[in-house]
Amino acid sequence: SPGENKDLGDIELIARATRGNIKGKITDNNNKPIPRVKVTIIDSTPSITTITNNEGEYALNDIVIGKYRLTFEHIDKHFYDAEREVTVEEEKTTIVDMVMEKIKGTISGKTTPGNVEIYIGGEIVATSDNDGNYKIEELLPGEYTLTYRKNNYIEKTLTVAVHPGINTPNTNITLDPKPGTVTGRVIGRGS
Q1: In whole angstroms, what is the distance from residue 153 CA to residue 157 CA?
Q2: 113-172: pLDDT as tens digits
Q3: Phi, psi values for residue 109, rounded to 5°
Q4: How much is the average pLDDT of 68-95?
Q5: Which residue, of 30, 52, 77, 174, has the fewest CB within 10 Å?
Q6: What pLDDT does 2 receive?
Q7: Average pLDDT for 30-41
Q8: Phi then psi for 165, rounded to 5 degrees?
Q9: E strand or H helix that includes residue 27
Q10: Distances from the Cα of 68 to the Cα of 23, 43, 83, 99, 136, angstroms
Q11: Which residues lie closer than 8 Å to 74 by C-beta, 6 or more apart?
Q12: For position 8, what pLDDT does the model report?
């Protein structure tokens, strides 16, 4: 009734922090989408994580406004990890796209004989030393056809799979000498 006071007990007021969103697309150096990237806001409590879809897209919604660090980690470890700072603004969606670099691999081995030129796609990529040792670094993951050439030896090819962050060792090959010819005339005593 009017003019009457009633005790309603304790009332707890909870201030709702204003929030925003983060979204983006993860691609490689060729602008191809990268699925299976774990995107994490590492300096929130608890950390907030999502995973990119097949189109390389992700979204982190309803994030308290403020500055954060995002980490990008490929689940299958085919790309180098990345990190980016982001500011989440009130009732806005902040776009954070990322280009991730593939982890490269190495091929190493021994040629017999030494001093053999090694080609990939018609380009010389290495020459084995006097003992035949060689190493080809900074190769993107995939299959490569190596061609081994040395004067007076029969050329050989070898297909090698390169995996991210791994050395493919013992890629050894032996080249056979080209058959020779003898020219000239035979001089001898007649019978």
Answers
A1: 13
A2: 999 999 999 999 999 999 999 999 999 889 999 999 999 999 999 999 999 989 999 999
A3: 180, -160
A4: 95
A5: 30
A6: 66
A7: 97
A8: 70, 15
A9: strand 19-27
A10: 14, 6, 10, 19, 39
A11: 34, 36, 37, 38, 81, 100
A12: 62
153 with 178: CB under 8 angstroms? yes
Q: Residue type at 1?
A: S
How many degrees, rounded to 5, is the angle at CA 90 between CA 86 and CA 95?
Answer: 40
Structure-block tokens of residue 28: 């490689």
Give the residue from 37, 35, 33, 93 showing the smallest Cα distance to 61: 93
Backbone angles phi, psi at 52, to 5 degrees: -65, 150
pLDDT digits (tens, 9 = 90+) for 83-109: 999 999 999 999 999 999 999 999 999
| d(C-alpha 116, C-alpha 125), whole Å | 11
Amino acid present at 4: E
Q: State CA 27 to chain mean position distance.
A: 11
In the numeric block, the tokens 């490929």 are attached to: 74
Closest residue by Cα to residue 20 from 111, 104, 91:
91
Q: Is 184 exposed, middle or buried (0-12, 13-18, 19+ CB in 10 A)?
A: exposed
Contact partners, residue 73, CB within 8 Å, separation at least 6: 37, 38, 40, 81
Q: Which of 159, 189, 187 is closest to 173 using CA atoms?
A: 159
